[in-house]
Each structure stands twice: as C-alpha cells, then as structure tokens.
Queue: 2 jobs
Job 1
Amino acid sequence: MNLSKSQILDLLPHREPMLLIDELTNIKKLQSATAIMNVKKDAFYVDGHFPGQPVMPGVIIVEAFGQAAAALTAHGIDKKTYENKLVFLMSVEKARFRNPVIPDCKLELNIESIRSHGRVWKYKGEAFVDGKRMADAQWSATIVDRK
C-alpha cells in the first residue's frame, strides 16, 4: 500500500511549504513505512542554507521524520481518533547527521513505530540518499486536540 501526496494531505494538517513528504510507501499498518521526500533546489530553505552551497538543514530532516510518522499513525488508526487533532513532536533523541543532504535528490525516510502508550508514540528512523545513510534519530510525539 502506498499513499500519494494528496492522500497525505487528507491525513496531516501540514500545508506548503511545510508539507515535506511526497509519498508514503511500504506501509505496514502502525508499524513501519518509507517516506519519500523530493529535496528540490527551490525549497524554501535552500537560498539561505548555505548560499552557493545548499545543504538541507538537519531540523528539516527531523521534521520530515515526524511528518512521516504522523502519516503512518493517522493512516493506521480510526479516523475519529485523529479528526480535529494535531500531532506534536515531544522529544528528539539520538539524532545523528552523518552526511549532508544536497538538494535535487530523493530522500528516503525509513521509519518504525517502537511503542505507543495512549496518545504518546515513540519512533525511530533512518534517512538515505541512493542507499547511503544520511541521518537517523528517535523521537516521541503526541496527539492533542485542536484548539
């Protein structure tokens, strides 16, 4: 099962330019998935990070991990559980940025749900470009009511 960007838009509150993931593939319900992010030369962060030598900021990679996990979870649970809700990042642990992500590439984010307790979920993920590991992290998120 794969989710297109339009299907991801139905699951997440994020909108351009902050909707980072373009596709969710290899979905194992509430367990794991691969998110695809097409890192483009005209992305909002490229001109300033760094002029003449663009590098995708690590915090954007972490945000993409979080969006991928939120889409995986929203896709797997009852719609009433996430309707009128937001997913907030609670913590980021063990984030490592191993190689710079240079725009005009396909970033593959392999994410896995480690555990959940009520509205709190813990995940881990690894980011790759052409099979080379670029980053990895663990993080926690929670589902909260929209205000």
Note: Residues 5-145 form a domain with the Thiol Ester Dehydrase; Chain A fold (CATH 3.10.129.10).
Job 2
Amino acid sequence: MRFSVFLNARTTAADQDRRLISDLIDHATRAEALGFDAVFIPDHHFTGYMPVASDPMMFAAYLAAKLPRLHYGFSVTSVPLHSPVRFVERVNILDQLTNGRLLVGVGSGTTPEEMVGFGVNYKEASAISDANLAIAEQLWAKEIGDPPIEFDNGPHKGKVLQRIAPAPFTPGHARLMPVAMKEASARRAAEHGWPAFIPAFTPPNIGGTEPLKHVTKYFTAYRDMLLAAGHDQARVDDALSWTTHTYQCVHVAESDDQAREELEVILRAYQAAVDREKYFADQAERDAANKKTDETPTALTDEWIATWCLYGSPETVIAHLEPYAELGIGNILCGTTTGPLDQQRLAWADRTLELLSTRVLPRFKVA
C-alpha cells in the first residue's frame, strides 16, 4: 500500500492563519523526508477548516516546487464551485508543474455555506457537478480548429473559441478521482482507468461502527467495473495503487492507552471548532434550496471514531490496516493534523509521521 498525508488542520481565528500555513509546509516537508507518497489538500472556503484550502491548487504548486518527488492530490475538489474553464486551466498547469504527479479528487461538495458563497444551490450541486465534468472533458479534448464550445451551467457560462492553454502533461488530462459512492461516479472512474475514493459509510448515516463492510462494498463494485473496462494491466495497476481509503484523524503513540487519551483531546478541540462554525452553517441552511438531508455524528461518538479514525500503537494500527491491504486498497490517506493546530497538536502530528514511517509503512510499502 501507499501512504499519503491529508493536510486537514483548522484555525479558530484569523490571526492564526499565517502560522498554520508555515506549520503545514513544515509538516509536508517532514512527510516527504519520511517516505510518504503524496500530500492531499481539501477544497474548502470561508471557515477555519484549512484556510489555505480556499485555493488548494495554488498551495500544491508551492509545495511541488519544494518537494518535487511527492504526488499531489485533492480530497476533494467541490466541482460545482468552479468554472469548468478555470478548473481545466488550473489542472493543466499543475499537471505540467508536477510532471503528471497529480490526483484530482472530484465531488459535488458537502457544505451549503460554501455553495451560498459561490451562488450555487446545494440541492442542484450534484447536477451542476456532473455537467461541469462533462464540459471539462469537452474542453480537454478541444483542438484549436474545432468549433467553439459554448456552455451555460448554473452560475457558470462561457464560450471557448480556441483551446485550453497550457496543454496537459498527462495524455488526455491529469487523473481525476471520483468518490465511488454513486454508481455513476464509480463507473466514471472505472471506464477512464482512474483511481477512486472508497467511502467507509453509506448515506444518510455519515458514520457507523462497521467501516470495513462499507469499504468492501464500494471497493468491490469499483474494482469489478475497472477490470471489466478493458484497460491494459499497467492502467489497472496504476488505478488500484492510488485507490484511496481516507482517515480524517490518524494518531499513533507508543501504547494504545496513550493514543486513545490523546485522540480524545484532539477530537474535543476538533468538535469545539466545528460547533463554533455551526452558527454560520445554520444561516446557510435557512432556505429549502440549501438544506442538508444527512447528519454527521459528533466526533467523540463511537460511530465517528470507528468511521474516521485510525489510532493506537504501531502494532494496533498494523492489525487494523491488514484487512484493507488484503482487500486491495492501494492508498491510505492519513489525516495527521486534524483539528486546531497548536504546537502540542503539531508535535503529536509529527510524532505520528515518525511512528508510521519507521514501524507501520515498512509492513505495507511496495518495494
């Protein structure tokens, strides 16, 4: 299996943003030196959740110049919030700058507050996302002599006369990574030979105590479609090697008891930050067009911890991951900076990287 780092920290005030950016750069640098395969960044706006993720491609471009060995991923790009033209242009630039080491997670988004800020109705987000991705494929395929591509999709409209510049580095375009929850998204990934994100829950319940059951269901469906799509073995192997299971919070200590005690400190701070943001989230959901229909359990519940957390001693973490490796999951995405990133939290995150690198990765890494 591959192991990647998910930068998912929070600030609780504007005067913390600059320090957060510096700390995340240092953490990514440490991850690269310790042998991790990739850094993934979310796409979020307006809150203290990863302020630098308001433009994750810009942050990834900066990191790529410093750490060119790494792959860079997005978990995930909220496609309805982005003009398809700007999306394609920025992906192509980053595809060139990383020499193809790019994994562009795509989804319809989960946060009404962000939709409101970009003029998108939450209930229309899935349809806008699908249409934007279809427009993006047309733009990637367009050559300079082809007829213009004209589109009008939700808040996004335009007419492209020539071509998208620059051209992509990767033939066709950089790999996209849909979330393999809906059959259509899993099939899109499989038919293109792309990797996918494999969920550990089934809506409307955003959590539960049997994550492996859900991972097995979604991974098996995606893998079977991928194998049936007629790709050559190299394409299949590449897709499966990056097919990703995500843990929002990974925390490793010398003993299980220490890891659990520290995990609860992390999750209490995380939940407090989420609760502070809820006032604005509730404002966004006041009208029917932006009302969510699912509910996420609080972070200290057994359901949230079982779904989103990987914690314990190195030996316990290995035992937890073994059935995922046997299933065929290719990439474990480790949220190592979950919650507000004060100096204690950062020290724990750095220790987690060290223990994963020296005592967990050698058990699973491909030579």
Note: The longest strand covers residues 71-78.
